[in-house]
Amino acid sequence: MTHTSAKSGYSFWFLAITALFVTCLIVSNTTAVKLVSVAGLVLPGAVVIFPVSYIIGDVLTEVYGYDRARAVIWLGFACNLLTVAVIALVGAIPAAPFWDGQAAYERILGAAPRILTASFLAYLLGEFANAYVLARLKVKTGGRWLWLRTIGSTLVGQSLDSAVFITVAFAGLLPPKVLLATIVTQALAKTAYEALATPLTYAAVGALKRADGSDAYDYDLRFNPFAVSDRSRLP
């Protein structure tokens, strides 16, 4: 299989999918405060949109390569950090005397440092694991079996994401059995979401490859999450 790398520069479609990724991430963090019941399972409201970030991550890695996916993951992290900082700053500014929504603002938008730490760590580990597994599997399979690569990478990424978040956020607060059950439930639910969205993933990958003429194979890449662009490529 010939190594075809992503085009230089940033196309409209790459920028659009990056914006969608960042939007999904920020909306997920905002809606995660509400717990919902789905088929008898208690899940954070973010389950509606957060798995979409993994689907987008799969598309980015499949079409543009790990380099571009890595840049988008860090961009999402920076935007999320800015969002959290602004929310905290606005929350700390004294409210107008006639405004009675301070408690509601803090209840919905505020987050304890432990929860924020868990969220940031889980995001980075999960997203980078997802991109790494998909990129390596693409080379191993010669670009075949996209469904296997997207579902497999999501299972690894979401398992890490759920394990890190639930453990860091709730260890010592929930019994070990409940902790483990919550991790497994969330990981499987999010992976099932990815599996159901496989036709959409195929359509998006096909459309972007045709539009941008890009189909990246990371044969010679050092998969360092802290590297900057092509500096991580092997000589």
Short description:
By secondary structure, the chain is mostly helical. It has eight helices and two strands, in the order H-E-E-H-H-H-H-H-H-H. It has one domain (12-217).
Identify the overall geometry. globular
What is the succession of H and E elements?
A: HEEHHHHHHH
**Count of structural domains:** 1
- Sheet with most strands: strand arrangement: 1-2
Structural class: mainly alpha
Mean pLDDT: 86
Largest sheet: 2 strands, antiparallel
Helical residues, percent: 55-70%
Write the layout of secondary structure elements.
Layout: H1 12-31, E1 35-38, E2 41-44, H2 50-64, H3 66-92, H4 102-109, H5 113-141, H6 146-170, H7 176-196, H8 198-212
Antiparallel strand pairs: 1-2
Helix pairs in contact: 1-2, 1-3, 2-3, 2-5, 2-6, 2-7, 2-8, 3-5, 5-6, 6-7
Identify the notable features of this structure and list them briefly.
single chain, 235 residues, mainly alpha, two-stranded antiparallel sheet
Structural description of this entry:
The chain has 235 residues and is mainly alpha-helical. The protein has one domain (12-217). Helices cover 68% and strands 3% of the residues. It is built from 8 helices and 2 strands; from the N terminus they run αββααααααα. It has helices spanning 12-31, 50-64, 66-92, 102-109, 113-141, 146-170, 176-196, 198-212, and strands at residues 35-38, 41-44. The chain has a two-stranded antiparallel sheet. Helix 1 (12-31) runs antiparallel to helix 2, helix 1 (12-31) packs across helix 3 and helix 2 packs across helix 6 (146-170). The chain starts with 11 loop residues before the first helix and ends in a 23-residue tail after the last helix.
